[in-house]
Design a protein that fits this description.
about 375 residues; Elongation Factor Tu (Ef-tu), domain 3; Rossmann fold; Ubiquitin-like (UB roll); 20 strands; about 20% helix
Length: about 375
């Protein structure tokens, strides 16, 4: 049973090889998924294996026309395959990185990446009954989780709901149908806004709404809901499932585009004696490493740490992924996050340094 295993979806198939810990990746294959979505398969240049949890992502560094940019892409392949890993990327009109990947990257080319990172995984959100809600290319982490469950023979009850514009925009359509034939407790439901091009379309038409959700998941309140997609899709899905009686503790979401944080939430991470961030330089101290550094007014703790050369893991820098999550031992911060931390974690003294600005001197358990 998934919930009983300590690390049920991280499998070392070749423990004699070292684990890839970030650095160079070599493109080994490129697969056309739809008219505007491609999967890029990577391997390490040296004999190394990949170790990650399904649902996690990598942060890629690109040099495009002399400009250094970073993008986070979810791993779409299962964690049971450790010789290669894949990302699946939708071309964004007028984008910077996705057109470059689609038009310029070739088999044999090399990229640099770090990670894996992220907590949108079945290890973090344990259950034996799931409702997966995905929109567009937000399907990638949920596909990785489903593929991993299938490889491991996990007997999970999964309702997988995917929303797309048209049938030709459905990513992994054939692969998910194949998985459903082999996993008796995996049930797929697809919603398209317009069934153009497929007169015999048998799925739902329109957008995810209360009536469709009631038909697909009448037992919604007893399931762990994992949602990924564009910000408007996730906002609508969140409202629907909570209105249907789902407890907030049974809802998790992940933005597939860390450049577009949905509905940032501003709050004090602990009761503050004064209002607002500090108007003078504050001191940040890492208790375990005994490193201290100054933080200018208005600067986040992550920005101050990077300026001081103090290591602090991060990925999205927007309060979404949870990679930098740290325990605050003392002090007060003002935190504006995009969903990468839960209310109960905040109550336990955790913060996201990437989106936390100190109100006074702060000590972190790092």
């Amino acid at each position: 049973m998934l919930a009983a295993a300590p690390h049920p979806v991280s499998v070392a198939l070749a423990p004699d090889r070292p684990v890839w810990g970030g650095g160079t990746l070599v493109c080994r294959a490129i697969i056309e998924e739809t008219h505007d979505v491609k999967t890029f398969v990577f391997a390490a240049p040296s004999p190394a294996r990949f170790s990650f949890l399904p649902g996690q992502f990598l942060t890629f560094a690109f040099d495009i026309v002399g400009r250094s940019v970073e993008r986070c892409y979810t791993i779409s392949s299962p964690s049971t395959v450790d010789a290669t890993l894949s990302i699946t990327v939708k071309r964004v009109p007028n984008g910077v990185v996705s057109p470059w990947l689609h038009d310029r990257l070739r088999v044999g080319d090399r990229l640099r990446a770090r990670g894996p990172d992220g907590q949108f995984t079945p290890v973090e959100h344990r259950s034996d009954r799931y409702l997966f809600l995905s929109g567009g290319s937000g399907i990638t982490p949920l596909a990785s989780i489903t593929r991993t469950f299938a490889d491991l023979g996990e007997d999970c009850d999964i309702l997988f709901v995917h929303a797309a514009r048209t049938p030709r925009d459905i990513i992994f359509r054939d692969d998910l149908a194949r998985l459903a034939r082999h996993l008796p407790r995996l049930r797929l439901s697809t919603i398209v806004e317009d069934p153009v091009g497929e007169p015999g379309w048998a799925g739902f038409v329109g957008r995810l709404d209360r009536d469709k959700l009631a038909v697909i998941a009448p037992d919604l309140a007893s399931r762990m809901v994992m949602c990924c997609g564009p910000a408007p899709f996730m906002a609508a899905a969140r409202r629907l499932v909570l209105a249907a009686g789902l407890s907030g503790d049974l809802y998790a979401e992940e933005s597939f585009d860390f450049g577009d944080a949905p509905n940032p939430i501003a709050l004090d991470a602990a009761p503050a004696s004064g209002a607002g961030t500090a108007s003078k330089i504050t001191q940040i101290r890492f208790a375990k490493s005994q490193r201290s550094f100054p933080c200018d007014p208005g600067m986040t703790i992550l920005e101050a740490a990077r300026r001081a050369g103090v290591p602090l893991p991060f990925a999205c820098s927007k309060g979404i992924c949870g990679t930098c999550k740290s325990r605050k031992l003392s002090g007060t911060v003002e935190m504006t996050h995009g969903g990468g931390i839960r209310p109960r974690e905040i109550d336990q003294g955790l913060i996201l340094p990437c989106c936390s600005r100190p109100c006074d001197d702060v000590v972190l358990d790092r």
